[in-house]
Amino acid sequence: MDHHHLYTDSGAGLEKLTEERLRGKDLADDFNATRARDDEGRQLILRELFGSMGDDVWVEPPLRVAYGNHVHLGDSVYVNFNLTLVDDVDIHIGDRVMFAPNVLITTTGHPVHPDLRRDGSQFSAPVYIDDDVWIGAGAIILPGVSIGAGSIVGAGSVVTANVPAGVVVAGSPARIIRHIQDADLQYQYRPPRGLL
């Protein structure tokens, strides 16, 4: 199936896709029902749920997926509460990526004209998040987006376009705020300023 063109993912002849979705949702439900001390049980479920998963991955429940098996995580990924992955096609997440709470990544959208979406038609495009990216709380990553290595997506941002490596983006739609520099190696807490 070519996901760059419009398609539907349910109905006659698509029972296999429906079963694949239900399997992922069942595994996510099992994961979300684990006890806080059951690290081993959660890891076993995640390895069954995701298409691939590196070492030293931590995912805080709850987690929501469309399928789960289209998600590929690198090593040392940290996921905080309420990650939602609409993975109708692949989501690739590199090494040492960090997710703050309430992040949404979607590979799927619908056409603008209502006549084209009446039957549930949709399109899908993979999402790529490179190594060492930090996604802030409540960020939304839209279909087809790539986020370059080391970049930061600010809290509440809506990422509608590719993000180059080594930048901070924020806003809706997200825009480059600044480049990450060697001066950023010197950490200093900066309290919030007054509104401009």
Automatic annotation (TrEMBL):
PROSITE patterns: HEXAPEP_TRANSFERASES. Keywords: Acyltransferase, Repeat, Transferase. The keyword Repeat applies. SUPFAM superfamilies: Trimeric LpxA-like enzymes. InterPro entries: Hexapep, Hexapep_transf_CS, Hexapeptide_acetyltransf, Mac_dom, Trimer_LpxA-like_sf. Residues 14-55 form the Maltose/galactoside acetyltransferase domain. The keyword Repeat applies. GO terms for molecular function: acetyltransferase activity; O-acyltransferase activity. It comes from the Bacteria. One of its GO terms (cellular component) is cytosol. Belongs to the transferase hexapeptide repeat family. PANTHER family: ACETYLTRANSFERASE C18B11.09C-RELATED, SIALIC ACID SYNTHASE-RELATED. This is Sugar O-acetyltransferase. It comes from Cryobacterium zhongshanensis.
